[in-house]
Amino acid sequence: MSHLRKFIAIAAVAAVLAGCGGSSTKKTSFDTQGLRAPEGSCSVKPSRIGLAEKIRDIDEGNGCEIPNAWRVQSLGSVSFSNVATMNCGLADPLNDWLENHVQRAARKNFGEDVVSIDVAASFACRARNHKNGAKMSEHGFGNAIDIAGFTLESGRKVTVLDGWRGGRDERRFLASVHEAACGQFRTVLGPDADRHHRDHFHLDLQNRRNGSSYCR
């Protein structure tokens, strides 16, 4: 019986090691249709409007790439909970939304400014919603950012997950900034879009052939 237990234990360890070896293999290509990142260079360098640094261009060799990559820690008066890696063209519209729409909505509904945002995701080499066979996510071009919450001067935090259907001031604030984002970005997704976005706003600059935008 002891020999049997020893054999089972060895087999279990071998299975775990095999699983780890398989998961560490880097994917070399995507079976998805890539989307085009915004054409042309950015009009404003992120370092002129926030705490940001230029980094080496990113090319994963599988369709995910940022030809003009930056690491951004803040824009205007708003700091980021996590450093966001993005293409140069995303910073200016994001800054405009934060400074001219988010701050205005915060003052109107809470009587104070937003000092930071919770960045749930920026650059990520993956398909949309992590679904096999889906189109390449705009995150794969550093062309999108996910925002899960806003912190006010008083320390109060307003999250998309709790505030979307929370108190009246939080509902009005989040609805207002969501609506304003629809004028700044090509794609805006929130809790009413689907279950994948129940706890954050997804903002991106996807180029569509017909030039249309999608806001939900």
Q: What coarse outline follows from CA principal-axis ratios?
A: globular
Termini gap: 61 Å
Q: Bin the strand percentage.
A: 15-25%
Mean pLDDT equals 83
The quaternary organization reads as single chain
Proportion of helical residues: 25-40%
Give the uncertain stretches in residue-range form: 1-26
User: Count of DSSP E strands?
Assistant: 11
Q: How many distinct domains?
A: 1
- Major sheet details: 9 strands, mixed
Q: What would you call the structural class?
A: alpha+beta
Q: Rg to the nearest angstrom?
A: 21 Å
Question: Total number of helical segments?
Answer: 5
* H/E topology pattern: HHEEEEEHEEEHHEEE
Strand-helix topology:
Blueprint: H1 2-23, H2 46-49, E1 52-54, E2 58-59, E3 65-66, E4 69-75, E5 78-87, H3 88-110, E6 114-121, E7 144-152, E8 157-159, H4 160-163, H5 168-181, E9 187-189, E10 201-204, E11 214-215
Gist of the model:
The protein is built from five helices and eleven strands. The protein is α+β, with helices and mostly antiparallel strands and 216 residues long.
What do these coordinates show?
Helix content is 31%, strand content 25%. It has 216 residues and is an alpha+beta fold. It has one domain (36-215). The strands form 2 sheets. Strands 1, 4, 5, 6, 7, 8, 9, 10 and 11 form a 9-stranded mixed β-sheet that branches. It has a two-stranded antiparallel ribbon with strand order 2-3. Helix 3 (88-110) runs antiparallel to helix 5 (168-181). Residues 1-26 have low confidence and may be disordered.
